[in-house]
Design goal:
Elements lengths: L1 H40 L20 H14 L1 H4 L23 H5 L2 H10 L13 H15 L4
Bound molecules: heme C.
Heme C binds next to helix 3 and helix 5.
Length: 152
């Protein structure tokens, strides 16, 4: 009988120890998850300071805007959506939601930072440095500004 009790106690102790480990493990996991959530919430993608020095050499002419529109339709719409709100058909399958160009916060970073991000990319956002010439990258930004930038 005593033997049985002590064996049972051992089993209980082992179960408790296991439970403790699991709790500690899930707490640690929870902490990591919270940290991830905080990072994605803060939209951690920041262009380097030097990007602020990049200025737009193109003029927002009708020709540049219309060229930018066709670049946008071919290269960006599938993720960022026709309305620039990040609801493109491919965008729905990505782990990170594509940016919403209608947000004032997006434009607040400045066109230099936007140009830098468009050039360098950040998975799943592709880098366009080697896909579109500088001129084309600015034309698409001209289009984004004319079509989606909130008027203030
Ligand atoms: C494969 C899908 C995909 C394509 C194609 C794509 N993007 Fe993106 N884009 C994203 C995602 C996802 C993000 C958000 C990335 C992040 O914040 O980590 C993003 C972010 C951006 C940002 C930075 C947003 C911010 O909040 O600062 C800009 C600028 C941008 N995209 C412009 C473009 C332009 C212009 C094109 C077309 C020339 C394009 N993207 C094509 C998926 C895409």
């Amino acid at each position: 009988m005593t033997k049985y009790v002590s064996r049972e106690r051992k089993a209980v102790a082992a179960a408790l120890a296991m439970a403790g480990l699991i709790t500690a493990g899930s707490l640690a996991l929870a902490r990591v998850n919270t940290r991830h959530a905080a990072i994605s919430e803060a939209r951690a993608w920041k262009a380097p300071k030097r990007a602020n020095k990049i200025t737009n050499p193109t003029k927002m002419t009708a020709a540049n805007i219309s060229a930018g529109k066709s670049i946008f339709v071919t290269n960006c719409v599938m993720c960022h959506g026709v309305h620039g709100n990040g609801n493109g058909t491919a965008g729905a399958f990505l782990s990170v939601k594509p940016a919403d160009f209608r947000k004032a916060a997006f434009w607040k970073q400045g066109e230099g930072a936007i140009f830098w991000k468009l050039s360098h990319g950040k998975s799943p956002m592709p880098a366009f440095r080697d896909k579109l010439s500088r001129h084309k990258r600015w034309q698409v930004i001209d289009y984004l500004a004319s079509a989606f930038k909130p008027k203030s």
